[in-house]
Amino acid sequence: MKDLPAGATTIPVLEVENLSTVFATQDGAVHAVNGVSFDLRPGELLGVVGESGSGKSVTMMSLLKLLPMPPARIASGSVKLGGRDILTVSDAELREVRGGKVGFVFQDPMTSLNPVFTVGYQLMEPLREHMGLSKAEARRRAAELLGLVGIPSPEKRLEDYPHQFSGGMRQRVMIAIALACDPQVLIADEPTTALDVTIQAQILDLVKELRERLGMAIVWVTHDLGVVAGIADRVMVMYGGQVVEQAGVHALFEDPRHPYTRALLETLPDMDGGRSARLRSIPGQPPVLRDVPTACPFAPRCAHAFEQCHRANPPLEPVGEGHLVSCWWDYARTGTGPEENTHA
Fold it and tell me: Is the pLDDT of residue 210 over 70?
């Protein structure tokens, strides 16, 4: 497992336990998140990967109750920040957590930034709300933040509106807003998906630099395993609204244990295969979660599935140091996992 960065400790700053989120729809309940558990230590970067519809974004938005409720509902679980369950605090206390202790960078900065307010106003607002700065102090800090994320002439750009920034610069502004109040945790929900590869690389370099400088814990949600390989300490793989594998980044890429993780890695382009190399895909579709899964959600798409996979949902079990897997087939072939496992 990759060593943690300097300053990281083994005491989690964020602890998520058995988190479940349900949506009420016209066609019935949708169980979008089912029993997700993970922790995050100071200075650590956790990569969260999976296909669209795997539950990544809903899980992250559930942590801060950012989903509209209703139709969403937190059905179970706890989210402890510094030992305190933020799912049980008042709305006023939760507003203090959002932006103050946990920063959130959304996927599309153009829809996240308010088009009728200047960037300076939107940067100064959390500074005045959470840190009690005067208008002059907030303006100075806002200019510092724009400079921190690499925007030239930051004092001047405070007067500009979001449409006057490029896509990459808007995303930098979103990162600056998320960092405004020196949060303990930064959650980035696919922040580079809508950007071209050159700008993606710049944003990733920026995050690495800020993490090194500020020492904050980061959750980076993405579908891009190449990004995860370059920036993460640990990786959490999600499928069907649950965690199917979690490991240090080196262990996950060197010894993926879940068939879904293996399939994701096999879909990466083969740079040595030439123009004739075919891109691989995973047959089938992600499940529609009308009910809480009572069997392995990946079983219908899995080449290794056997009777037990269709009969029971495997628990997330340790199979090595810091390596957790939810897979009956892996338990059977390696002799690890729960005692109730049957032979493939």
Answer: yes
